[in-house]
Design goal:
- The chain is an all-alpha fold.
- It has nine helices and two strands.
- The protein has a two-stranded antiparallel ribbon with strand order 1-2.
- It starts with a helix and ends with a helix.
């Protein structure tokens, strides 16, 4: 949706209203879905963690901890981003590169911490849902509300339309077979995703600095890394399909 709306190199107020409307529908569906499975979810929680007696004091304490944690996360992310932007501007890096790398990484640190802690504790729904939900809210909510509030909308550069948004879509599609295989993101698949992000970031830095290594690095990505990644995802998906067919036949 964002790619289609960006083809005119601008996200207008109308585009923003459309994005926010999609977000509202999405949230409404989540609430509707959760209400239908509330009893089942509560029973599953009780079976796994046992019934825990809640008191008024513990509830207020938990609310205070959540609020305090959010405040500290916002402050920490803001300090990190401001310092990193100042450092990048000192080096003469473009604002687009800053937004795609330093600011994106800085504002994603809360998601990283939350997902890591949730994964360690075995709360896989929180670990995955935190990341997926954050991306949906960033695209629909942040871009949508910003487009509505900005007097002339948000200008979209041709570089973002021609490269960065397609990369974002490709990564989202690549997640589908990874999530599909056994319902688990393995350590190897996680390394593949992390390595892809490092390669993407390195490409942005080389392109921004017009480094002599950019043509060679681009060729390696285009003719080796990207095809190998897609072949790997296809092989993993086919193996999972065969495994499920074999299990169903038995």
């Amino acid at each position: 949706i964002v790619l289609i709306l960006s083809l005119d190199e601008k996200l207008s107020r109308t585009d923003g209203i459309m994005l926010v409307a999609v977000l509202v529908v999405y949230v409404w569906y989540l609430i509707y879905q959760s209400r239908r499975e509330t009893i089942a979810v509560q029973e599953e929680y009780t079976r796994e963690f046992g019934a825990e007696k809640r008191t008024r004091g513990s509830t207020i304490s938990n609310i205070g901890l959540v609020f305090g944690g959010l405040v500290l996360l916002v402050l920490g992310s803001r300090w990190l981003v401001d310092s990193a932007v100042s450092f990048a501007q000192y080096l003469g890096v473009s604002e687009l590169v800053i937004g795609l790398t330093i600011i994106a990484a800085g504002t994603s640190l809360p998601e990283v911490v939350t997902s890591v802690i949730a994964a360690i504790r075995g709360e896989r729904d929180i670990a995955v849902g935190n990341v997926v939900g954050s991306n949906i809210f960033n695209i629909m909510g942040v871009l949508g509300f910003t487009s509505i509030v900005a007097p002339t909308g948000i200008e979209i550069s041709t570089a973002v339309i021609g490269f960065d948004i397609p990369v974002m879509i490709a990564v989202a599609l690549a997640c589908l077979p990874i999530f599909f295989t056994g319902g688990v993101i393995s350590r190897q698949e996680g390394s593949l995703l992390l390595g892809s992000y490092v390669a993407y970031t390195l490409y942005l830095i080389l392109a921004a600095s017009h480094h002599d290594a950019l043509p060679g690095f681009s060729a390696v990505l285009l003719y080796f890394v990207i095809p190998l990644t897609f072949v790997t995802l296809i092989v993993v998906t086919l193996r999972e399909i065969r495994s499920r067919k074999k299990s169903s036949s038995e």
